[in-house]
Specification:
Keywords: Methyltransferase, S-adenosyl-L-methionine, Transferase. The chain is α/β, with parallel strands linked by helices and 268 residues long. It contains six helices and 13 strands.
Length: 268
């Protein structure tokens, strides 16, 4: 993901949503089902904002569960794809670094697949959480799933060597080589990914980064913004191993590579 001058992120996959779904398939809709399970267990109302909705898969799953869903993303190609392939929700363009859909417009905000971690600075994170609080009705929920910064304390298994991935899409084999490094000063996990395809095109390099948030740091900033943390754990979740399944309750540890949070907006 290359950062533009305005701080907004773009990648090869951002503008090619079909390729995104081919590279990161979720045929069982685990992410959307996990989010719905969180909403149901904590009694969330029907109005849901999926912030960073991408291709609309999770927004569509929440809609199928009976929610009134708004999917928001910065990528116009993603939104256009979502409207066609995952209809039902309303899809709108918005920036998670600061958005305004009106006061108390939603009963829940969902932010999956590390989208929250594109808030690289404290100011961006503050604006995101302030926007969430403004958008939520009193008692509304924030449900988020992301990488866990604590995993990188003393562990290097994700950093030691590049990771290769290969998949076929429309008869062409696509390959990516991904290298991760930790920028401790900025508290970022930086990614360099080189794409190549068997169609003879030139390799493409993209750069992106995620904020490394630690469990107690996240608990503190949520509390400071007027949220009560109901769950904060490393799994099971939609991207854990083994993955979440219906009936599995949240764990109590926060040590593995994913972090899951459910927080309730405090009442006035």
């Amino acid at each position: 993901m290359a950062l533009e001058a305005n701080g907004r992120a773009r990648t090869l996959l951002t503008d090619r949503p079909e390729l995104y779904e081919a590279r990161f398939p979720d045929p069982e809709r685990l992410a959307g089902r996990w989010a719905e399970d969180c909403l149901r267990r904590h009694g969330a109302g029907p109005r849901v904002l999926d912030m960073g909705c991408g291709t609309g898969r999770d927004a569509g799953r929440l809609h199928a569960a009976g929610r009134r869903v708004t999917g928001a993303d910065l990528s116009e190609p993603m939104l256009a794809y979502a409207r066609t392939h995952h209809p039902g929700p309303e899809y709108v363009r918005a920036d998670l670094h600061g958005f305004d859909f009106g006061a108390e417009a939603f009963d829940a905000v969902v932010c999956l697949d590390s989208a929250l971690l594109y808030c690289h600075t404290n100011e961006q994170l503050d604006r995101f959480l302030s926007s969430c609080r403004r958008a939520l009705s009193p008692g509304g929920l924030l449900v988020a799933e992301m990488r866990n910064g604590a995993y990188f304390l003393g562990r290097t298994d994700l950093l030691d060597s590049p990771a290769d991935a290969e998949f076929a899409w429309r008869g062409v084999v696509h390959r990516s080589v991904t290298t991760l490094t930790v920028d401790r000063t900025a508290q970022l996990l930086r990614r360099v990914r080189v794409w190549s395809a068997g169609d003879g095109g030139e390799p493409a390099e993209e750069r992106s980064a995620w904020r490394l948030l630690f469990p107690q740091e996240l608990r503190h900033v949520l509390t400071a913004h007027g949220f009560e943390v109901l769950e904060l754990h490393d799994g099971p979740g939609p991207r854990t191993e083994p993955p979440w399944r219906e009936g599995l309750l949240p764990g109590r540890a926060a040590d593995a590579d994913r972090l899951h949070v459910v927080a309730r907006r405090s009442r006035p």
